[in-house]
Amino acid sequence: MPGFLDNYGVADERRGRIVKRVVILGLAILVLSTAGYFYFRTWRQEKVVNQFLTALSQQDFQGAYKMWGCTQDTPGKYYPPEKFTQEWGPSAPYSNASAAKIDNIDYCDEGVVFKISYPKADPVALWVENGSGVISYAPWPRCPGRHWQFRQFFKGLFSS
């Protein structure tokens, strides 16, 4: 015969499990969305830099020059096509674009700074504007201010 106190506390225990699951799920969503934001916030700019390096490796210098916001018809005021070909062309130190490696990515408010290293040349810092996706030389080697190094932390944590 069932007793009066057999079901005492069952509803409280069930409610406690539900609250615990909701809190854990909320924290997991918060952590994953924050990590996703920091990981994907430079995704478009990374695609632009990769397209630029691909165009250079395929020796499509006109296409790469267009990514600088310039064309043959309307060349850049301070960066004519001859200068571009001299710095990025086949005889330039940065000619081996397939060997280029993105070492560091810094997110600034207006754009992203990419530090790209080459095997036999000095590293170069490229700037990609957020809105237009135009590439140029970075005004600084890294964005001014303090930096969170999540990407390097996770690469060091999970790489061999």
Task: Write structural notes for this entry.
The protein is 44% helix and 17% strand. It is of the alpha+beta class and 160 residues long. The chain has two domains: 1-40; 43-158, Nuclear Transport Factor 2, Chain: A, CATH 3.10.450. A four-stranded antiparallel beta sheet has the order 1-2-3-4, with helices on one face. α2 (43-57) runs antiparallel to α3.
Helical amount? 40-55%
Count of separate structural domains:
2
Rg (C-alpha, Å): 25 Å
Supply the CATH architecture of the largest domain.
Roll
β-strand percent reads 15-25%
* CATH class placement of the largest domain: Alpha Beta
**Annotation field: number of helices:** 5
Would you summarize the structure shown here?
With 160 residues, this protein is α+β, with helices and mostly antiparallel strands.
